[in-house]
Amino acid sequence: MFSQQRASDHRGTDDLLTAGLGLAGLRAMVPPAFADAEHPTPAELRRRALWSNWRGIADLAPGGGYAELYGSVASVAGREFSAFAQLPGASQPHRVLLQLPDAFDAGKRCIVVTASSGSRGIYGAIAVAGAWGLPKGCAVAYTDKGAGTDYFDLDAGQGIAADGTVAATDAALAFKPSPVAGSGVAYKHAHSQDNPEADWGRHVKQAAQFALATLNEQLPQQAPFTFANTRVIAVGISNGGGAVLRAAEDGDDWLDAVVAAEPNVLAEGHGARTLYDYTTEAALLMPCALPALGIPAMPGSEAKCAVLAGKGVLSGNDLKARQQDALDKLHAAGWTDAALRAGSISVAFDLWRAIGVGYASAYGRYSHDAHPCGYRYSAMNPDFSTRAATTAERAAWIADGSGIPPGAGVGIADPQPSTDLGLTGLQCLRALWTGDGADAQRVRKGIEETRAGLPRKGLSVVVIHGTDDGLVPQAFSSAPYVAMAQAAGRDVRYWQVRNAQHFDAFLGFPQYGAVYLPLLPYVYAALDRVDAHLDGKSALPADAVIATVPRAGKPLATDNLAMPR
Predict the structure, then answer these.
(1) Using CA atoms, how far apart are residues 529 and 493, in angstroms rounded to an integer?
(2) DSSP label at 295?
(3) pLDDT at 381 (0 to 100)
(4) Pairing state of beta strands 94-101 and 78-85?
(5) For residue 99, what are the β-bridge partners?
């Protein structure tokens, strides 16, 4: 089940939570440097990966309240244990990691198990689970859930080894695509041909099993550690939130509680929509719709609206009418104005296309050279022509990547010329959901494999979601999931947070920080309350719609959060 096991010590200037960077180092605008850019050491890669993942998840900006009003970047000494884990039937491994603090609470015997948000690497939930669990003396177990930043350079024939360094195909790699020949870049979430999202719950459970095995080996005087005598709380956000909800379905009595925030989860019931459906819809329509809400038009959107009108996607004789038609179509599909306004962030950062391209490959189990819309990935020149990656770029992918390009020097290569404005590809991606061809049926089959079931009877679950989420709108995800679970009599509590959207990390931008609140404080608070409930000290939190108060440019204060009592 586990291979390529490694262990390392992290004390003094290289702790578990921030690799010695502390709050000041995490706030630095420049990532930790490599002594040799082409050959960074495993320790350098780890430090930089922690820097990247903290900044990708949490609002660390001055005035945002992190480590002052909520959260922790305490220096926690301890050890890390990592491995490749393999699910039965999977062609590729997923990474698992256990952080074991020296101050592990032998009396409480707690494990916090988590899955990376988005498609991030193994440290992709450090600011979620690590920041809460490690200072409390809990061991924290992580999985990249079959995604991660173990990119493979097809031109060089090189991938990523267990220690994060670049290695050739004859080494034990975290991801080795099939075929290994080709040009450009392959990455595990899209190109493993495993449809990893279908197995997210099993990834989480395997991470917890790795944690128990490691605790038994490293703490023999306290052994045995079993699911029966060890508290296991699962927590995750975004895709990680969806992963822990999938883990909650397991009929075995191994989980004690689950906290899922802004979960990408496909439920049954009214309003439920798959991420792929609304992502490909947004990629086509949202750039045209936003000006009808008073949001400035993105560059090139007017031309795109005209082309879409010519193709029959939009109606209207002038730009204003086409913009209104796009907005009307999104409203009819269930989008709220609040979700659309926050969704403008994803338009600006090209996230809708990035998700559509990568997830089409994942759901359809396509190889890197067989994308149904002709896309591929590559390093790029400033004019967007493709080229081979440099040695330095390749060496930094595991630390700098988000797990889904574009980013870290890897871009999306569109088979159409730039004069197409990217619309042929976006329509192709949309047709994989709406069409009837063989590729569409293949993609939809993969999507159906990800549909969530009910949590185990008797399991305590808290779901948290921002009402303004524009990437994973609650109306399509958590709301139908909670309705499904509560209707079946499951113990699921629901916190809906006003003025919170999907990305805490973007709150460092003044225009976002003025109107939106972070979601992480509510994740930590829910964990506190679940933990106290398991201790027999309090009841689980009640459902709540939390009336937050935007900070309007002022430092975050307790009154802004309006935390439920």
Answers:
(1) 12
(2) P
(3) 94
(4) antiparallel
(5) 80, 140
pTM: 0.97
Alpha carbon distance 516, 514 (integer Å): 6
**What pLDDT digit, counting tens, does each position of 369-408 carry?**
999 999 999 999 999 999 999 999 999 999 999 999 999 9
Active site residue 238: yes
Q: Which residues pair with 167 in a beta bridge?
A: 159
Which entry of 116, 192, 238, 478 is annotated as an active-site residue? 238
The 3-class SS string of 159-218 reads: EEECCCCEEECCCCECCCCCCCCCCCEECHHHHCCCCHHHHHHHHHHHHHHHHHHHHHHH
Question: How many other C-beta atoms lie within 10 A of the C-beta of residue 137?
Answer: 17
Mean pLDDT of 248-268: 97
Q: Give the residues across from 98 on adjacent strands.
A: 81, 141
Residue recorded with tokens 């990893």: 196
Radius of gyration of the chain, Cα coordinates, nearest whole angstrom: 22
Residue 263: both structure tokens together: 């979960």
Residue whose entry in the numeric block shows the structure tokens 């197995």: 199
> CA–CA separation, 523 vs 475, rounded Å?
19
Question: Could you tell me if 253 and 243 are in contact, meaning their C-beta atoms sit under 8 angstroms apart?
Answer: no
DSSP codes joined into one string, 318-344: SHHHHHHHHHHHHHHTT--HHHHHHHH
ω into 179 cis (within 30 of 0): yes
Decide if 133 contacts 110 (C-beta within 8 A).
yes
What residues contact residue 92 under an 8 Å CB cut-off, 6+ apart? 146, 175, 176, 188, 192, 193, 194
